Amino acid sequence: MRLPHVGLTLRIIGVLLVLGVAVFPLYWMFVTALTGDSELFASEARLVPDFSQFGVFIDALAEGKATTWLLNSLVIAAGTTILSIGLGIPLGYALSRFSFRGKVIVTVVLLFTQMLPEALMVVPLFALFRRFDLLDSLGGLILVNSAFVLPIVALILKGAIDGLPREVEESARVDGARPLTVLLRINVPLIAPSLAATAVIAFFHAWNEYVFAVTFVFTPGLQPASVGIANFIGELGTPIQTVMAVSFMFTAPAVVFYLFVQKYVVAGMTAGAVKG
Amino acid sequence: MTALEQQQLPGPRSGTRRRGSPLGSKWTPYFFLAPAALFILVFQVVPLAQEVFLSFTRTSLLNPTHSTWVGFDNFARIFGDEDFRRTLLITLVYVVVCVVVAVGTGLAVALLLNKGFRGRGLARALVTIPWAAPGIAVALIAIWMLNPDYGIVNRFLDTIGLGVPGGAILDSPRYALPAILVTTIWQLFPFTSVVLLSALQAVPPHLTEAATMDGAGRWWTFRAVTWQSIKPTVGLLALLMTIWSLRRFELIWLMTKGGPVGATETLVIDLYSQAFDSKQLGSAAAVGMVGIVISLIVIAGSRFVARAAEREAR
Amino acid sequence: MRLHRIRRSMVAAVSVTGMAAALLAGCGSDGGSEGGVTKLTFAASTLGDPGRGPLLTKWLEEFNKSQNKVQVSPAAVPYPTFGQTILTQMGSGKGPDLIRFDMPEFESASDAGLIAPLNDLIDVSKYDLLKQPDQFMVHDGQRHGIIFEASNYAMFYNADLIKKAPTTYDEFVETAKSLTKGDTYGLAFRQTEAEEAGVWQDIFNYVYGFGGAWSDGKQLTINSPENLKGLQAYKDLYDAKVIPRGTDAATFRRMFAEGKVGMELNNGGYVTATRGQNADLNFNVAPIPFPVRKQGTILAPIVINEASPAKEEAATFIKWALEPANQVKLQEILGASSVATVTQRSPEKLKETPFLTVFDDLTESSLPQIVLGFEAKTPDIRKVVVKNVIAALQGTVDLKTALDNAQQEASQLVG
Q: Which residues does the annotated region (Disordered) include (chain B) (predicted)?
């Protein structure tokens, strides 16, 4: 009777430890943002937030810049999510349900592009963007970020469609429905969890992206939050509390968005994997 | 995603041809394919082809349209460079540790959360937070937490008597890489644990029960039943972690820029500093090609292992 | 029911994609001229500085108010990747119209022909330019930039902690050691590879202050005995742990502003930034007490991008900046730096900041942080030198070997 009890206690301790490790850095970001100047450089660390310092959040927002950055990040992330899923669904469908000339090449290219580091592609893409007049626009960043997540999105969606029974769509086909209708009406609703998973991947990718954003956008009003935060890192000084406050506000929406969809993400992410 | 692993290359075994299938004309797949293919062609394949070309040239960042063809010079030079060999070694260490520890920790956490208890939903949600945190924010808080004088990490380590001399963690060739690894794994383990947790929950309960009924010990049950059914997921995660770790940039660049004395210089960091500090697009492209070849080997190797496992299972 | 909802969301998705496309088409704008007004962008890492950044933005607005055909707006390029970002853009024929560069990037950009020649755009004979810094703006008779800021290096010290400023190197070391206790450090300088450009600026004072030089104008002299002496001094201070090791400049400057660092060798631009962080700090400035009175200076030229479609208009801005009244304003914003032309400091400013003259008196003995004779290669030489010096700090090689290695690697680079 005693042993399971010990096991339970150990498990609780383990869970609390893991939670502590997972959450602490974000908590620390919050505490640092809310620590006064003198305490920040004191010999004893302040362990709890000083809410009298809350003005740092308001100041960061009131200046207007942080709001613009966050909005730009949101536009880029949402645009990337929509575009990459919009292109990824038909691609995943084609790869899953059809065999056609060049399929091997397409699949290999998709896997292959997953390995390309952004830093490698900055210079040729810059020239390309210049030619198409895409520099200094949120649209351009949506395009480039989509290109980088589209392969993984398409591959995950292909795995999800692979897992669907063919019978339903084939009977719909017999009833005379066109392939596009079949895809949109029958398959897409069934892979909703995987769509959520890919949405998260695409959203996070674009929300976090720095290298392209810093090089391709010149107008301060178009910069996303990743670049905006880097703007605070100065040669002569970095306002640590402000940086932490903005970082916290930059992190929070991503976390909330994730918590919101995480149930589907887990299901979708593993749709193919578990089956195998 | 394993499904994709198995089906992406229709070998001779999957010989079901569906010419004139009920799914429409032979042009139908191209209709679905075309928009995405065009997109990837323009934004990935064309720039990549340019990079392949650049890797055989001497080209300055300051004048990227003028290239001098130098054949294999860039490759000869980087492979002749002792620093580059160190970079390869550090990349290897970084990737292997990331993969092993991220998957291992992920599995441990997944096992911990697999049993039902009150508040498990909340715990599972909270654990995944690090994965959602943007890289630049993670780097900034990590730098601040590791600050030699005011960082909470050093204060904590000093308190328990394990303090690094001078507290200079990111500044020391010995501790910088471990610090970056810990930060990376902190960001990765939620992903692996969430994926492994759902794999664990897909293990048919009657199997484990049967094993326990037969009087098998916990360890034996884990190895014979649980491990067998989550193995494919583990393999897939390992592959993903490898590819992602090979291209990780922001975290390392913001925390150490590859220093001190090259102690954290991975291939991507080397690539970036060749291209943008030394302004040598040619050597940078050559470094990039080496990275791509390594990734290809990893993918080919993982497919080989997967096939072998399949054959064994049969 | 569920199917229905998803279908509706698909419709929404498609329409948002359409909006995104519309956005794409609309956002491809490029600045340039609209309705007879030419819009220019100006990139300067200084625009992100605490204290100075907001004031500089106001100064730009004054220009905009004075003009009806040309408007200049700041292009905020983050400091951590400033050089890389701007040079990538310029190399591909893009980038801001006006740029405030640091010397090493200025030299490589002008060598690569990315900077517009100014001889035909600006007639400098009209202005009373400071000769010592201005000579570095001209290459083979062609002018490529105008000094935006020239900022000599001096010793900043906390006047509450240090009653009498050290005047010799030994006193300097002594002061640094005696002040270091608990969470307070006697000194601070940059010593991490993550701050390569900063380390280069900081070691410059040690090399030149001990009589060394990076080159004699024809040959690199990285491993000369004088350089070794100067860098040994730098390393000794690092080894003596009188500096916050591993702390980046942004943080240790905050620490200086909070009274946790006693001394720092820094340039005049730092005055405003420090006050911006802590208006009450009681600090003072004296010349660097090293054996030889030679120190670095930050020369920051303002240049016109060769790729700019509006060079004439960009020159209009530079000419406006060179007008005496605007020079005075710029100088007051920049703090203890000097600007392109000879300006008089107002009596009020001198009363407020008596040590301003310390910086002004150093102009003749200050040198830009470039490698003479190898100007365009400075960033590459910098990378090699900093890498090897840090290897010595970390104890992987001894300093002499490190400098020999640096000399060899850098000589190969410059061919």
A: 1-22
